[in-house]
């Protein structure tokens, strides 16, 4: 079973607690439940008259009590601590020299040890000696002992102030301690002091930043004691020690751990620790919750890592390995798959703990990243607002020497009045020159009265700063006396309360504005008591109800509310808490008896100790009409979707149908109401189909990406197997923030059947092509061969010779025709995936050579050099040049046909020109000659040659055009052949 690391001591606080006790100037000791000493700090040991705490440890408290107090211990102290957990009072202890009367405070938690605190020490004849010893101890102690009055004015500080803060002893006496406390900590200190004033028995330590003489801020830990019941201090005695960086880190860790543990029950966050030596893993309860495991499961690091989403698993594994191996911290936001199969986004942190250069353990946290981010954002905003508020606060300190009339202002007070630092000349007259003329007499009279009575004073008045602006200030001052009891000086602080005064002055205006807003509010507002009696109402509410305002006073809510009885309303109001707001919908009745729908927000407030209810009422007649229209629109949309002949559906993360149109329901053989809420496993008899659908659904939801399924089968309720072409898209269900998918499936059964028919026709064409280029071509070649033999046996002047020539010509044309037909069929059967890199020069040279051999009376020349370039095509590229060259010769009416071929290139493409000296082509025929079956002028051919040229060129990504040659003939240009 996993253990809570808090119980295993993962977050150690012992050193922090010990430092807090040792640094305290208050005597403290810890005893076990048998009243045996476990610990005592130096102050406690000193009061008891010993020099070493070891002299007290492992002995019982009664060993140090005077005989008269032993009975008191058993009869009073022990029962009180057992029953209430605490006891305060005086006992006599047997010190090493003489008995002492000591006021002790005992406190105990439910299961913990007993804390003993020395509240005060009383002696008889040895009082002077004890005081002298205590004073020596205070001055030699590393802790600063400070005596404050209830307003926070420093009355005394021990010698340690020189060592710790750099001030001369007594330099801060008379100043307000708050002037030296960091603005960010000042509020907390004031609250602690106010709480201690209200409850003098409250004890505890406080940590804050204090300004040194060199203006550096250092952290102090202070234990304060309310001495209002122990004159002559009549205020507070505080013992402060400087916190080292190491102790400060420990304190922060303890505070964070305490906060962490307290917030575990309300925040989705857990803590863990991995021990590198034992390879054991500890989890807090929240980690089990996040993983979806019972606390009876023993956590293992390998299993924990495997619980992460496969796409993120390597990230956490690498980070965890680096943490153990290199001591590298990490913070990752990853997906975690819980034991229930739910995918969560978590933020996990790892912090290696290094001892003697070796990583001994890794501690970390795991939490819901959304909650953490939102909390961080809120904290950052709150911190920024707090910082701005503190920076905006203005206050200044001052001193007035009654005997010399010298006045001292600190820098902050000068800045408060817009003065240059150091420009105040330090006289009473200078001070009065800044006081508002209307306030001078009152200020002077209050000061004289305080001096005469030798008391402090507090008053509010206005300063006039250098720019002539009024600054309201609240002055608080206390006198300081010399040894003879005469007033030496007054020390005080001025707090800028200008905003407060302006607020007070504008309060009446605000109330008037509020009343105006109340009356002019766009919504009705009614104030009533817990019985429902109307106390106040604005004009909008009265108008909506059709009453004059005075007619509604004294009426009950039940007089106009129709959807709730008076008893139901009273029960509703009684269940509400002060400050709580609830909303509900109902109907209100007008004076004329008609009703209208309303939305009401009710807020419970406290006015002079009485429960009141402020109701904001909005007429929602138009909204209800709009909602009705929306419902009608949704109904129409549903009808439209149901008319779509394709399957449209929505499934949630569990594979359940959330929505299905009529087409979907028809395929499943049930109604849309019956299909929604069910899974494919419940609807389909074919388990393999259901599993295939579920796999695709999960892929889409988990990846967040759409998926195109080209072919999947669905067995309908009639047993018919249909072929579907499906698209599945990630979808978010409105209102529940749940992942889902939207599916759109088209029945392509007939389309697939047609495609299979086309494929069969393609196969048949392939067979025909083989027959044309093999069987027919072979027979034609036999005809040609025998015709050539007969030609040699017949006289050239006989008519038979002419017939043989026609046979040979027709046979040769038929051979060319089979070649062209074969090429056309090959093009029709080809796929662009067959394209490769073809050597252009070789393809052209081969065809030029072949044409020269076939047409001996023609002149075929190559202009320039054909470059060695590769083009994207296939072996049919040669057919392009063969047909163009033969076309230029066969349709040439000159005795000596002339054909020239040239090549030009760019970085991306190649162009080939073939020019002839033939009759040329009229403009009206230039485009048509490339059409299938279009013959040239006076041509006996089929027209397939040029059609093949254009088809092949366009498949390669190029174009073929024809233009006039100069002076006669045609130019065929094949351009745009892509280079590779």
UniProtKB/TrEMBL annotation:
Q: One GO molecular-function annotation for this sequence? A: phosphorelay sensor kinase activity
Q: Which CDD domains match?
A: HATPase, HisKA, PAS
Give me the reactions it catalyses.
Answer: ATP + protein L-histidine = ADP + protein N-phospho-L-histidine
Which part of the chain is the PAS domain? Answer: 130-200, 382-454, 510-554, 633-704
Q: Which UniProt keywords apply?
A: Kinase, Phosphoprotein, Transferase
- Domain (PAC): residue spans on this chain: 457-509, 582-632, 707-760
Asked whether the keyword Chaperone is assigned, the reply is: no
Which ranges carry the Histidine kinase domain? 771-975
InterPro entries per UniProt? HATPase_C_sf, HATPase_dom, His_kinase_dom, HisK_dim/P_dom, PAC, PAS, PAS-assoc_C, PAS-like_dom_sf
Q: What class of enzyme is it?
A: transferase
Instruction: Supply the EC number(s).
Output: 2.7.13.3
| Name of this protein | histidine kinase
User: What species was this sequence derived from?
Assistant: Natronocalculus amylovorans
């Amino acid at each position: 079973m996993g253990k809570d690391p808090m119980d295993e001591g993962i977050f150690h606080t012992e050193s922090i607690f010990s430092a807090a006790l040792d640094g305290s100037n208050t005597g403290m000791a810890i005893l076990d439940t048998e009243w045996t000493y476990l610990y005592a700090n130096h102050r406690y040991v000193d009061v008891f008259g010993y020099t070493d705490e070891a002299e007290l440890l492992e002995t019982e408290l009664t060993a140090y009590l005077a005989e008269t107090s032993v009975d008191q211990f058993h009869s009073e102290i022990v029962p009180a601590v057992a029953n209430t957990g605490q006891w305060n009072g005086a006992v006599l202890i047997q010190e090493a020299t003489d008995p002492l009367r000591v006021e002790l405070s005992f406190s105990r938690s439910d299961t913990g040890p007993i804390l003993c605190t020395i509240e005060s020490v009383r002696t008889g004849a040895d009082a002077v000696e004890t005081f002298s010893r205590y004073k020596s101890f205070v001055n030699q102690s590393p802790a600063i002992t400070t005596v404050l009055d209830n307003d926070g004015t420093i009355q005394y500080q021990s010698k340690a102030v020189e060592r710790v803060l750099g001030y001369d002893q007594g330099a801060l006496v008379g100043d307000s301690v708050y002037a030296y406390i960091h603005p960010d900590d000042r509020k907390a200190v004031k609250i602690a002091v106010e709480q201690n004033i209200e409850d003098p028995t409250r004890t505890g330590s406080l940590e804050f930043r204090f300004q040194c003489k060199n203006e550096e801020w250092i952290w102090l830990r202070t234990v304060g004691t309310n001495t209002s019941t122990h004159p002559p201090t009549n205020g507070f005695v505080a013992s402060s020690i400087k916190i080292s960086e190491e102790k400060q880190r420990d304190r922060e860790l303890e505070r964070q751990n305490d906060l962490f543990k307290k917030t575990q029950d309300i925040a989705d966050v857990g803590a863990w620790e991995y021990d590198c030596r034992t390879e054991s893993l500890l989890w807090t309860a929240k980690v089990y919750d996040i993983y979806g495991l019972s606390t009876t499961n023993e956590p293992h690091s390998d299993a924990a890592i495997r619980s992460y989403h496969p796409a993120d698993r390597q990230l956490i594994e690498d980070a965890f390995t680096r943490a153990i191996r290199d001591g590298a911290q990490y913070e990752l936001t990853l997906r975690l798959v819980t034991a229930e199969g739910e995918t969560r986004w978590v933020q996990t942190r790892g912090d290696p703990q290094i001892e003697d250069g070796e990583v001994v353990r890794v501690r970390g946290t795991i939490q819901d990243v959304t909650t953490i981010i939102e909390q961080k954002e809120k904290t950052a905003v709150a911190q920024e607002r707090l910082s701005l508020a503190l920076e905006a606060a203005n206050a200044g300190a001052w001193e007035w020497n009654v005997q010399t009339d010298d006045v001292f202002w600190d820098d902050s007070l000068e800045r408060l009045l817009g003065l240059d630092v150091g420009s105040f000349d330090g006289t009473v007259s200078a001070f009065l020159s800044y006081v508002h003329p209307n306030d001078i007499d009152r200020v002077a009279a209050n000061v004289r009265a305080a001096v005469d009575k030798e008391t402090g004073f507090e008053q509010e008045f206005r300063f006039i700063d250098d720019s002539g602006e009024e600054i309201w200030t609240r002055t608080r001052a206390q006198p300081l006396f010399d040894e003879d009891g005469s007033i030496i000086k007054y020390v005080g602080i001025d707090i800028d309360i200008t905003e407060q005064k302006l607020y007070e002055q504008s309060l009446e205006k605000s109330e008037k504005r509020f009343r105006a807003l109340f009356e002019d509010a766009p919504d009705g507002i009614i104030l009533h008591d817990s019985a429902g009696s109307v106390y106040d109402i604005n004009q909008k509410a009265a108008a909506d109800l059709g009453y004059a305002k005075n007619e509604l006073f004294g009426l009950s809510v039940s007089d106009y509310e129709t959807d709730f009885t008076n008893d139901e309303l009273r029960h509703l109001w009684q269940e509400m808490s002060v400050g709580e707001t609830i909303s509900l919908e109902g109907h209100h009745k007008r004076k004329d008896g008609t009703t209208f729908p309303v939305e009401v927000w009710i807020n419970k407030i406290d006015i002079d100790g009485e429960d009141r209810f402020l109701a904001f009422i909005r007429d929602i007649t138009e909204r209800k009409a709009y909602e009705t229209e929306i419902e009608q629109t949704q109904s129409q949309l549903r009808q439209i979707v149901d008319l779509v002949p394709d399957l449209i559906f929505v499934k949630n993360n569990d594979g359940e149908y959330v929505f299905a149109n009529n087409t979907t329901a028809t395929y499943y053989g049930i109604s849309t109401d019956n299909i929604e809420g069910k899974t494919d496993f419940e609807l389909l008899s074919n388990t393999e189909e259901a599993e295939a659908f579920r796999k695709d659904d999960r892929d889409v939801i988990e990846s967040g990406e759409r998926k195109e399924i080209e072919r999947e089968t669905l067995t309908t309720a009639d047993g018919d197997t249909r072929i579907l072409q499906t698209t599945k898209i990630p979808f978010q269900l409105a209102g529940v923030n749940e992942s889902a998918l939207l599916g759109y499936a088209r029945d392509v059964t007939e389309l697939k059947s047609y495609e299979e028919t086309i494929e069969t026709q393609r196969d048949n064409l392939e067979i025909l092509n083989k027959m044309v280029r093999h069987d027919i071509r072979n027979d034609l070649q036999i005809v040609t061969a025998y015709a050539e033999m007969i030609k040699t046996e017949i006289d050239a002047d006989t008519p038979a010779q002419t017939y043989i020539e026609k046979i040979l010509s027709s046979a040769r044309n038929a051979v060319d025709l089979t070649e062209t037909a074969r090429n056309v069929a090959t093009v029709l059967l080809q796929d662009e995936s067959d394209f490769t890199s073809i050597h252009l020069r070789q393809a052209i040279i081969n065809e030029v050579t072949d044409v020269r051999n076939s047409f001996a009376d023609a002149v075929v020349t190559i202009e320039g050099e054909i470059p060695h370039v590769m083009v994207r095509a296939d072996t049919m590229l040669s057919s392009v040049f063969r047909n163009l060259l033969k076309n230029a010769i066969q349709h040439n009416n000159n005795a000596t046909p002339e054909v020239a071929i040239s090549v030009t290139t760019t970085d991306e493409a190649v162009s080939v020109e073939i020019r002839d000296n033939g009759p040329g082509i009229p403009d009206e025929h230039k485009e048509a000659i490339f059409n299938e079956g279009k013959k040239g002028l006076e041509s006996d051919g089929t027209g397939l040659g040029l059609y093949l040229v254009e088809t092949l060129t366009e498949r390669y990504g190029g174009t073929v055009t024809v233009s006039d040659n100069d002076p006669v003939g045609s130019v065929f240009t094949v351009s745009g052949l892509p280079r590779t």
